[in-house]
Structures are given as C-alpha cells and as structure tokens.
Specification:
By secondary structure, the chain is of the alpha/beta class. It has three domains: 244 residues, Rossmann fold; 192 residues, ANL, N-terminal domain (Rossmann fold, 3-Layer(aba) Sandwich), CATH 3.40.50; 167 residues, ANL, C-terminal domain (GMP Synthetase, Chain A, domain 3, 2-Layer Sandwich), CATH 3.30.300.30. It is 40% helix and 22% strand. It contains 22 helices and 28 strands. The strands form seven sheets. The chain has a five-stranded parallel sheet, with helices on both faces. It has a five-stranded mixed sheet with strand order 12-13-14-15-16. Helix 9 packs across helix 10 and helix 13 crosses helix 14. The protein is globular and about 80 Å long. The relative contact order is 0.08.
Length: 656
C-alpha cells in the first residue's frame, strides 16, 4: 500500500476533505459568468460537493452506478464528478459536441442511470435518445433557460438537487460518510471513453490508484504547488482535462479557472494568466495562425521589428530558456526583444506567467514547438494515453527537444518491441476496458505491459523516446522505404494557411496529400488582396489559393529532402479539399485525430485521381449539417503537381 493510501488519501473525495482543511480559504474554482469572475474556496467547494452528494443519495444513486456528465468546463460538472465518486458511483464525462447517437452508444454501453447536463440543448439530445437507454432514469441540468414547461418528473435542476440534499442532510449524512470512507485505491475513480480512431470507443476504467499516483508523481516532477493557476477549457471527456483539473488540482490544491465560453476563452486566458498550461497541438497551431495573421496586417516597421527579433529568438531563445551558455551581446539583444516583442506577445497570448506548459495528444510540428520556446515559454512535450492516466514520458527541464517526447515518467517502465512498437507499464496503467475482456487482453498482458500502438525508438544520444507515428500508420513505400505520414502532415500544418493534411503513400511509389485550408487565415489573406468568395468551397478552389498551397507543399518537400530517413516522403501531387474534415462526418475524432481508413474510403475517387494522372476530378460528398440533417455537395477539384527535390534512391532496400 502506498503512503498516501495508508494516510487515508486513497480517493479524490478524501483529497477534497484534506484540502477543505489545509487550504480552506484558498481559491479552488473560479468561473466567469456575465463578465464577472465568481470564486469558490476549497471550504466552499467541499460544501457544494457534499450537498450535491446528499442530493444524489436522495435521488437513489447506488454504489457502482454510472453518472454521465455532459457540458462545457464549469465548476458544477467537476463537483458532480466528485459528488458521484463520494457516493460510490462512477462519473463518465462525454464530449458536449457529440451527436446524440454517439452519446447513446456510450450511455447504453455503460448503462448510465443518471446524467448531469448543462442546458436545454443537452437535455433535448438525451430526450431524443432515451428510448435507446434502457437503464436511464434521471437527468440533472444546470441552466434552467427554456426548460420550465418540460416534464420534470425525472428532470431536476442542479440547485434544487442540492437544496433537497441540504434538507435531507440528517437522513443521509451517515450513509454518505459510510460510502466515502469505503473508497480506497482499488475503487474506480472515473471511466473515460477513447476517441475511437479505428472503431467504437472503449470505456477505460481508471482506479483511484491510477489517477492519484499519476497526479502525485507528475506534480512532483514539475514542482507543482497549491499556488498554480490553470485554465480548464479542454473537453472534460478527455483524460488530460481530468488529470489536470481534478487529479493534480486535488493532489496539489491549486485553483481551476473555467472560462465563460469558447468565444471568450482567449480573453479569459489573458485575465487569469495561468502558471501551468496544457494544450493539444491544434490550440498552439491556432494561436500561432492568429499571430501571423495580425502581423500580416501590421505596419512595415512593426513587421520588420517582429521578423528581426523573432529570427534572433529562434537562434538563442531555447538555449537561454534551458540555461545553456549564450554570448553577452546575444543576451542583450534577446532582452531588448523581450521588451519590444516577446513580452507583449506572451501577454497577448495569455502566457506571460506560464512556468510549465505542456502539449500532447498528437505530435506537434517542430517549427511550432520551437516558436513558443524561443519566446521564453517553458513548453514541453509529454507522451501519454488514456490507458496510462496520461503520463508515459515527460520532458525534464533543461532537456527539452522538439524531436523527442522525453524520458519515462516517474514510476513508468518503457520497452520497444522488435517491430518497433512502444510498450509501457506503471502505476497509472488502466484496470480494464469495460465489458471488453478481449480488447483488454490484447492491449495489456499478464505482467502489466500495455501496447501503445505507436512506433518509436530511444535516441542513442540522450536516451529520450522518439515517436515515429502510429504503428498502424507507419508503413513502407513500394520500394520498401519507411513511410511516416504524421511527420509530413505536421510539417504541412506549420503553415497558418493549412488547417489539416492527410498524406498517402503506403505501398505506393510516391506520396500524395489532401489539404484543408484554414478559413480564418486564408479568408484574411483574401480580404487583404480584394479577393471575393461566397463559400469555403469557392475559396479553397481559387487559383491563387492553390498556388499558395503549392508553395507550402514545395517548401515542405525541400525540408524533407535534407532528412535522409524521410526524403522519399516528399509530396508529388495534392488536392485542396472542398470541405473541412469534420467529426460530425466521422472523418476526424472529437479530439481532431484523423481517421485515415474513413477518409481513404469516403474519398476513394479523389485518392485514385492523385495516382492515375488526372488533372481534375468531379466528386459528390455527403455532409452533416449542424442540426443533424444530411446533405450533399458537388465539386470539381484541381489535382495539383508539386516540385520535388531529387534524392538518390538507395542501391538496395532491405526486404524486411
């Protein structure tokens, strides 16, 4: 038994009790509502959660029940998850933007009896699918707007459930304490569903041991304290948010800040100025795109200053950040750049106080990663999975590299199989896939080793792990040379004009690609150049836009040509797609991971055109509208050629 379990800290509710005494008057949660920040201390939080837990007992929540949680990041939802744990139930957060059918699969699979949702939109979704949910009984909502005339026999307002909990305190308090004290390291803490890149999502069962041990070791690794400030804005259904906003927050006792809405997130980020920040690559890519767009609109002097000092920052910024030797003149010039450019830019981005920043979820382009570190932001990469309670590897301070994901996290062991697949084991390894013993057995062996599905190797120079790509995506070209699409895609996505890219080439003699324009960046360019357009489709197919995309692809090709391992992965032909890849159409996951199989099948005619020499291709594509209706769009797309840099083919390629 670990020391914290022995001390009675073997569950999240136990950590809440500790924090309510140790950090009673320190802020635990903030939420911006109607433009004003509301604050709850740890003592307040403990009272809010206890009254909700008593209300759940009053509603009939049993030990082992599953409670779905659906909505944007709000203190109430974090309270709901801990309240559910307090009564021995298991929280199951869902993606708030998921279609009703996706929610139906998850809630039916786990047999959820209860759901805590945000507003009328989510209530309507669950009402639409309630016939498919045979065990579902009660729904609790936070925002009452539009719900006054609904049937409230099984529909309850969040605040009313808390009021009923207060009224029934004497009746249920002993039962609540009994259930809370029965929780231990082996109790289930949460069930999180995978994104389902290759099939139906799987329910990952994580215990208190998994969450608390992972939170403890990672917090100690980065010296996190109760003084940290984080912004909770990532989907609650994602393991990263659960670890940062509940696991580490409850272990350290720091404050979780919830923005008012997605639209105000950037403003709220600047106001809070987090000290500890996490974002997947797409968020950093989007912020960089916005910076580049603004600089295109800047005056000549301002743009010259930006370009001059950013060039210097890329040269010496990371070295200064890591404490490596840098000449006095370079340090002086960097300090001047910090006054004129880097400092104001960090404040604009909301990163002025960031002490530790992480990116994970998928590989980030080296150029994007280096851009942020050159500003003096201590951005690091971690490699993790839902099944690992996030942490498999971490970057130690002073050893940060854009081409690696760091060293094994504390307590984690890593090995590389003969086929290059990465395996790990440690205290954060999940218990099982719910109701799926076959997948559990194929993923985790009897000794606790978990197959990641990723291909990688240890860097001989520094012992860091390098991830090449998803093992199932890494393949061979027709001549046997390595094909790693994600590496090329990340280089393409460095350009602000490119939102998404999908590269093909497995078993082919050359690589090709689909490209999505970033409507924000390209639309801004079109406006500056007096180019009118009526739709995404029209702008994506504009001849000048195609030329810009060609320039980006050819620049990536020149970069790849200098990499002997992947020089042959240069993109020969590409198509700029007529629509954005969309999770509602099943083309990418809710966490924006590409579903290659779906895309290859759905756009088979476009893929064939890339390889059969066609100059253009007419296509008809099914799309899903915001209200769930299906429709079709027709388009004739240009197949673009890109110049490649000649590279010498190897004299002999190994057969294996």
């Amino acid at each position: 038994m670990s020391s914290q379990a022995a001390e009675g800290l073997g569950s999240i509710p136990a950590l809440l009790q500790r924090n309510a005494h140790r950090f009673a008057d320190r802020p635990a949660y903030r939420e911006k509502e109607f433009g004003i920040w509301q604050c709850w201390t740890w003592a307040d939080t403990e009272r809010e959660i206890e009254t909700l837990a008593l209300g759940l007992l009053n509603l009939g929540v049993n030990r082992g029940d599953f409670v779905s949680v659906i909505g944007r990041n709000r203190p109430h939802f974090y309270w709901a998850m801990v309240a559910a744990q307090s009564v021995g139930a298991i929280p199951v957060p869902l993606y708030q933007d998921a279609a009703a059918e996706e929610m139906a699969f998850v809630m039916d699979h786990c047999g959820a009896r209860f759901a805590v949702v945000e507003d009328q939109e989510q209530v309507d979704k669950l009402i639409d699918i309630q016939d498919q949910l045979h065990q579902f009984e009660h729904m609790i909502y936070i925002d009452p707007r539009g719900l006054r005339k609904y049937d409230h026999r099984r529909l309850h307002q969040f605040s009313h459930v808390q009021e009923q909990g207060r009224a029934a305190r004497e009746e249920f308090l002993a039962e609540l304490k009994s259930r809370r004290e029965a929780l231990d390291y082996d109790s289930t803490c949460v069930m999180l569903y995978t994104s389902g890149t290759t099939g139906k999502p799987k329910g990952v069962v994580l215990s208190n041991r998994n969450i608390i041990e992972a939170s403890k070791s990672s917090s100690e690794f980065d010296n996190l304290t109760e003084a940290e400030e984080v912004l909770a804005y990532l989907p609650m259904a994602w393991v990263g948010d659960f670890i940062f906003s509940i696991g580490q927050a409850y272990w350290c006792g720091f404050c979780v800040n919830c923005p008012e809405s997605a639209d105000t997130m950037q403003t709220d980020l600047r106001e809070i100025g987090p000290t500890y920040y996490f974002a997947p690559p797409r968020v950093f890519e989007g912020q960089l795109t916005n910076v580049m767009i603004r600089m295109e609109d800047a005056g000549r002097l301002k743009k010259w200053l930006f370009d001059t000092f950013m060039a210097h920052a890329r040269k010496v910024g990371p070295a200064i950040l890591d404490g490596r030797p840098v000449g006095a003149w370079d340090r002086l010039k960097y300090a001047l750049g910090n006054i004129l450019i880097y400092g104001p830019l960090k404040d604009t981005l909301g990163f002025g106080r960031v002490r530790v920043g992480y990116t994970a979820g998928e590989a980030i382009g080296p150029e994007i990663f280096d851009f942020y570190r050159s500003l003096g932001i201590n951005l690091k990469q971690l490699y993790g999975q839902t099944e690992a309670s996030v942490f498999i590897t971490l970057h130690p301070d002073g050893e940060v590299r854009s081409d690696t994901v760091g060293v094994a996290a504390p307590g984690v062991e890593i090995r590389i199989a003969e086929n290059g697949e990465v395996y790990y084991r440690g205290p954060g390894v999940f218990e099982e896939y719910y109701k799926n013993p076959e997948s559990t057995a194929s993923t985790k062996d009897a000794e606790g080793w978990v197959a990641t599905g990723d291909a990688g190797f240890f860097d001989k120079e520094n012992g860091h792990l390098r991830i090449i790509d998803r093992a199932k995506d890494v393949g061979k070209m027709a001549d046997g040379r390595l094909f790693a699409p994600k590496y090329v895609e990340n280089k393409l996505k460095f350009f602000p004009n490119i939102l998404e890219a999908v590269v093909f080439g497995n078993d082919r003699d050359k690589c090709t690609a689909f490209v999505n324009i970033d409507l924000n960046a390209v639309g801004n360019w079109a406006e500056r150049n007096n180019i009118g357009y009526a739709s995404y489709q029209e702008l994506a197919g504009h001849p000048k836009v195609l030329e810009i995309m060609r320039g980006h692809v050819e620049e990536v090709n020149r970069s790849l040509a200098s990499d002997p391992m992947l020089a042959h992965c240069q993109v020969h032909r590409f198509i700029v797609l007529h629509k954005e890849l969309d999770p509602d159409d099943g083309e990418i996951t809710r966490t924006r991971k590409v579903r290659r199989g779906v895309i290859s099948e759905k756009y088979a005619d476009l893929l064939n055109a890339l390889y059969d020499g066609s100059d253009e291709i007419s296509t008809r594509t099914e799309v899903t509208y915001e209200d769930g209706r299906k429709g079709y769009i027709n388009a004739t797309l240009k197949v673009c050629e890109a110049e490649v840099v000649p590279v010498e083919a190897p004299e002999q390629v190994a057969a294996e």
